[in-house]
Predict the 3D structure of the following.
Amino acid sequence: MELTNIFKFLYEKLAASGLPQTLVDLIALIAAAFIVFGFLAVMALFLVWWERKVSAHIQQRFGPMRTGWHGWIQTVVDMIKLLQKEDITPAAVDRPVFYWAPIVALTAAFAAYVVIPFGKGLIVADLNIGILFIVGITTFTIISLLMAGWGSNNKYALLGGMRSAAQVVSYEVPMVVAILSIVVFAGSMSMGDIVNSQSKIYEWYIFRLPFGPIAFIIYLIAGTAETNRTPFDLPEAEQELVAGFNIEYSGMKFAMFFFAEFVNLFTISAIAATLFLGGWQGPFLPSWIWFLIKSLGMVFVLMWFRWTFPRLRVDQLMEFSWKFLLPLAFVNLIIAGLMKYSKWFNW
Amino acid sequence: MQTDTVQLVFYLFSFLIIISAIYVVTLKNIFHSAIFLVLTLFGVAGIYILLHAEFLAAVQVLIYVGAVSVLMIFAIMLTTRLASREIKQSNEQVMAGIFICAGFLLASLGSFANTVWRVVDKPLPENNTLTLGQLLMNEYVLPFEVVSIVLLAALIGAIVLARKEGA
């Protein structure tokens, strides 16, 4: 069952109701925003539970088992607990900055979903700058981390925020260059066009030798660093920084950061699925199920990374990005360009 | 989109830009100023979107918010004594400032009034990012490359300055 048909049907019903066109579009946009928000809220709750289960099984534990079947409502219960908590604002914080940081974090995390194709025709707006929009809008995540780090007026939070900003800025460069090699090959930045250019399985960019798999690996490494996950979790290294930038946050504000983190995890996976694994394309099943299968598969890979690799040192982290990933990404981009415009490889 | 909606959004973004720009220059806390600068630059990106310059808007956010502002905030955070202190935003040269601002205002108003704005009759190309890329690589390739060289020179200069002697 394609979800697109349902939405199209609802939109036509709305358009036929005699309301002015501007109002119809406005209602459709707000509805789309709520649907995406709802989907991501449920997805974040699921991912928190899944992360706990995956980590538990990798460490030969069970993880949450008591609430519901294999603890599946554990995160829902946790969420209710966090909602009930008192909203504590420490005395020494910079109030407006402290207050706005989680809001900016969550908004930046959600804004990327404007251009992500959830299925055939299931895209809020297929902008012609598509992927560049995501790269641009997610930079607000850095601002939010810096705001949280500085606004908390806490040594550990400040260090966590600065580490995180330095890391995200450094890894953004190879990531963008890796994405650029895909854009060069697809000849478009629109997410819809990129998905359409990989309709057969051998056309998926991950299978386009030699540049595809390299771009994919660079993207995956940089994506892990961007979401501050192990082996690149220096911003929140528990043993040295207690919890990093969010140390002073509690209750719902903490939950918002937590939420944003898992939404970002899903964003990285969804972009990887869209750019490299053919997006929603696949046989037999409806397109949105294929999108979910591929994205959640990528989420699992990232979780697997997190619980099996040790953490890097700061200098190793920076050297790896600037001295290895970036040159590799540039060479890869040149190869992609040559392949695109040579007669022998252009298939 | 209808023109009424466009105008409404334009006024909203202009309001956002002007208010946050005033905050940038008047707030005592330099970190707050930097945050409002981010908001100002974001508003400008919104105006670009209204003008159908989506590529420019994305690049504006990516470079000015993602790189320039982050670098500024980083510098503020590293100099802790600067961040915790109330900073005076004005000095004794208010009169000179007024004259320079008035001159600048007159110059910009004069140039706005005297410029002949080119109006394109035909609709804008559907994929204007593509058109922009083609123009940069064909018609304007020389200025484009010159700018690249300037940036490269700045980059190398920064590395040379930052490098320790003999290292």
Remarks:
- Chain B has a mean pLDDT of 84.
- Chain B touches chain A at residues 2, 4-5, 29, 31-32, 35, 38, 45, 54-55, 57-59, 61-62, 65-67, 69-70, 73-74, 76-78, 83, 126-130 (CB under 8 Å).
- Chain B has two domains: 3-91, 126-167.
- Chain B has seven helices and no strands.
